[in-house]
Amino acid sequence: MYSETVTMIEVLLAIFTVTTIGATTQSLSGMGFGMIAAPVLVLLFGPTEGILWGNMLGIVNAAMLLALKRKDTDWAIATRFTVAAIPTIAITVAITHYIPLAPLEVIIGLLIVTMVVFSIAAPRLRSVSGPGPQYLTGAVGGFLSAAVAQAGPAMVAYAQASRWEQKRFAATLQAYFLAMNLFTVPLKWYSGLVADPQSISVYTLGAAIGGLIAGTALSKPLQKHLQPSTLRTFALVVASVGAVTVLVRGFANL
């Protein structure tokens, strides 16, 4: 639970602000909610509950965006991503009982940095296609989502390597994020990773849902003035910031 030196009003404002920014970012780039929201939620509620919050709000955010972008969704790719993600999510939730979080975050941070570097270089390389890379991407994304609530960098790496159209990329990810989080949240509860979250209340949930609605609404006028290439660059920037955040947090907690 959050520190007693922080008032409830400050907590609610922090939740509303970070979910608004996160929802706007994800609506524009297809990803980024976890990268922006998770660090603040972890700061407020601790590492275990904070990541759980990221997963729970990820369900609502992805569902809202999927309803808006469903016509552009590639359901075949989303299905392959999800099928590959489920076993890696289960394995990740299991091992987090035994591995300290800080070393795990350092390893994950280095993995994400590698994917970001690959994403930048990918347009100069030969294009990839077929189910194989999609299953691999889904599996890596499941691991990252369960561990640090940030599957986006794996998705950007695949999108860059496959020359995936930004509009379809952003829409398809919502189906994938929704399915992953719907599996992750009950698994964490059932496994005992989260016992009885004290941070969940009508007020905190209200602030979070309000922020998601505000962020989604705010993205609509912004999207009209941004080119697809700009949005893809934005997605790369989001992935890069996420990589640095996880890596720095891991080293700081060693």
Write a compact overview of the structure shown.
It is built from 10 helices and no strands. With 254 residues, the chain is mainly alpha-helical.
Q: What are its keywords?
A:
globular; single chain; mainly alpha; 254 residues
Task: Explain this structure.
The protein is mainly α. 80% of the residues lie in helices and 0% in strands. The chain is built from 10 helices and no strands. Helix 2 packs antiparallel against helix 3. The longest helix has 26 residues. The chain is globular and about 50 Å long.
Task: Describe the protein's topology.
Blueprint: H1 8-29, H2 33-45, H3 47-69, H4 75-95, H5 101-121, H6 131-148, H7 152-162, H8 166-191, H9 202-223, H10 228-252
Helix pairs in contact: 1-2, 1-9, 2-3, 3-8, 3-9, 4-6, 4-8, 5-7, 5-10, 6-7, 6-8
- Classify the helix fraction into a percent range: over 70%
Please report the number of helical segments: 10
Give the terminus-to-terminus CA distance.
22 Å
Q: Which of globular, elongated, flat, extended, rod-shaped describes the shape?
A: globular
Order of helices and strands: HHHHHHHHHH
Q: From the helix content, strand content and strand pairing, which structural class follows? A: mainly alpha
What is the C-alpha radius of gyration, as a whole number of Å? 17 Å
Give unreliable regions as ranges.
Answer: none
The biggest sheet amounts to: none
